[in-house]
Design a protein that fits this description.
Blueprint: H1 2-22, E1 28-33, H2 41-53, H3 56-59, E2 61-66, H4 71-80, E3 85-89, H5 90-98, E4 113-129, E5 144-146, H6 154-164, E6 174-176, H7 183-188, E7 194-199, H8 204-210, E8 216-219, H9 224-232, E9 237-241, E10 256-268, H10 273-285, H11 287-291, H12 315-323
Parallel strand pairs: 1-2, 1-3, 5-6, 5-7
Antiparallel strand pairs: 3-10, 4-7, 4-8, 4-10, 9-10
Helix pairs in contact: 2-10, 6-9, 10-12
Length: 327
């Protein structure tokens, strides 16, 4: 009897040791930097965190999401080690890794920036109050226009677009530097006439902007200046603002033309391989259910999620892409 008891006890100890040794020793906390809560980055961080946190027991990784000022803030916070991951416009990723002249990283290439994957398309979008009389970009002259806060990705897209159309953003318009999440309220309160936001569609921000009492219109961002801008930079491409069906309150009767970029997911070379491996694997292994988490993901394929990246792919992510036959 005593022998049976002892051997059962022994087996129980061995079994529990095996269980314990399978589970990760400690929890690794990782934070994803996103954007304003009415944009698409914030729910994107949530979607990624959701699929990774499901395997919390297996990986010992706990993902949380932070609302931030946007792409530029996210690159800098990931580089400073304040965030492990960030959602960043593809143009901003390119500028950061190359230290592109005229960008926030002019002459200061961010050597440790690493790409994980790319996500939904983002369109440089301009919306204006009908009573402000802005039907084309040229009509912006003399108007109060929010071009975005300095930490945002879209501020530079607005400046690039204005400059390309021969509008001096410092002299010809009254430029505001407010966060995108606040812009719909300011537009409805008649404190601004128009605002720019580079973002995936549909989103809560433009739903809010177009659903109020003050009637608004999406304004095309087109012309030979824009053609030249898109031709100059590898990260810009012609794009559409899908107004129809998404924003019934807007005064447009069709979709409108503009240019755009892609949202991408980045990290630092200093983030451990196993963490980045787990994130890439869970997003791609759960691709079909991930895709359903936001309507802006409907165009995603596993292949196009590996396009539009300028920084080197993080080795942890690369390990998964090789295993999955994607690279
Ligand atoms: N593209 C914007 C930025 O980089 C954010 C868009 C969003 O939050 O969906 O600041």
């Amino acid at each position: 009897m005593k022998r049976l008891f002892l051997s059962t006890l022994f087996l129980a100890i061995v079994a529990s040791f095996c269980l314990v040794s399978q589970a990760p020793a400690k929890t690794t906390f990782v934070t994803i930097g996103t954007g304003g809560i009415t944009g698409v980055y914030y729910p994107t961080g949530g979607a990624i965190a959701k699929v990774v946190n499901k395997k919390r027991d297996q990986y010992g990784i706990r993902c949380t999401v932070e609302s931030t000022g946007g792409s530029v803030f996210n690159v800098n916070a990931v580089m400073a080690g304040d965030l492990e991951f960030g959602v960043v416009q593809s143009d901003r990723q390119y500028q950061a890794v190359n230290g592109t002249a005229g960008s926030e990283w002019d002459g200061k290439p961010q050597k440790d920036l690493r790409a994980v994957f790319s996500i939904h398309p983002e369109t440089c979008t301009l919306v204006a109050a009908v009573d402000a009389g802005v039907k084309t970009m040229a009509d912006l002259k003399g108007k109060r226009v929010n071009i975005g806060n300095p930490g945002s990705g879209h501020r530079k897209n607005a400046i690039d677009a204005l400059t390309a159309m021969g509008i001096n953003w410092e002299k010809d318009i009254h430029a505001e530097g407010i966060k995108a999440a606040e812009a719909p309220g300011l537009l409805q309160d008649e404190r601004i006439d128009a605002f720019f936001y580079t973002v995936g569609h549909p989103n809560g921000n433009f739903k809010e902007a177009t659903a109020g009492k003050r009637k608004v219109l999406f304004v095309p961002i087109t012309g030979s200046g824009i053609d030249a801008l898109v031709g100059k930079w590898p990260y810009y491409a012609k794009a559409i603002v899908p107004v129809t069906g998404n924003y019934p309150g807007a005064k447009n009767d069709s979709d409108i033309e503009s240019f755009g970029v892609k949202a991408t997911f980045v990290t630092s070379a200093k983030v451990p391989d196993n963490v980045v491996y787990a994130v890439a694997k869970e997003v791609f292994d759960n691709f079909e259910s991930f895709k359903k988490l936001h309507p802006a993901y409907k165009v995603l394929t596993k292949d196009n999620m590996l396009q539009g990246l300028s920084a080197p792919i993080h080795p942890g992510a690369m390990k998964y892409y090789k295993e999955a036959g994607l690279k």
